[in-house]
Amino acid sequence: MPVRSAPRRPRRHAPGERDWYTGSFPPHRRRGDGGDLLRLPVQDGVERADVSIIRLPVDQSGPHVQPLFTEPRVAVLPIGHPLAGRSAVTVLDLADDHLLQAPDAVPEWRDVARELRTGECDDVPALHSVEEKLELVAAGAGICVLPLSTAAFCARPDAVAVPVDGIGPSRVCLVWVATRRSRPIQDFADAFPSLAPTA
């Protein structure tokens, strides 16, 4: 999914289809650390959107957060990694690997990671997209943990996604400014769960 910084042109709708982006702000998309859509309704004190779809964790002290669904997360490994042929791995299996994302994004790994215990960890470079992260994975610079849908969408032949036992799911939520109570926001919040993927 491309990064968008400019509003999209209105698209034509089928009869009865509703445009959920008719609020006061155009839709914006930005990839976060896990390949997620991460655009809070208010960032840096500026209201940016009526409603946002985000992956936790985020600071939940200000916005209203409505859980939508969860999905498994997978470890993405270079194709030549010793664990790449396994049907599943554990967090402990990954303890000796370098994580190419902030350790707090994967607290289960952070709590067992050898490099964090010994202080021998490499810096995590500033990565601006999942594609950049997967390029480093393919080059053997480390591993990453992604939501299953993101790993499937960004799959490449020189990296493999492996399920991880003992790691929490990715949680997707609908978020809006708690003090906003407009009808379009409530309509969207009511309708969106029916559009969420099913197992």
Automatic annotation (TrEMBL):
LysR substrate-binding domain span: 48-192
Pfam family, one: LysR_substrate
KW DNA damage (keyword) present: no
Sequence ranges of Basic residues compositional bias: 1-13
Taxonomic superkingdom: Bacteria
Keywords: DNA-binding, Transcription, Transcription regulation
Transmembrane segments: none
Any one Gene Ontology cellular component term annotated for this protein: protein-DNA complex
MF term (GO), any: DNA binding
Protein name: LysR family transcriptional regulator substrate-binding protein
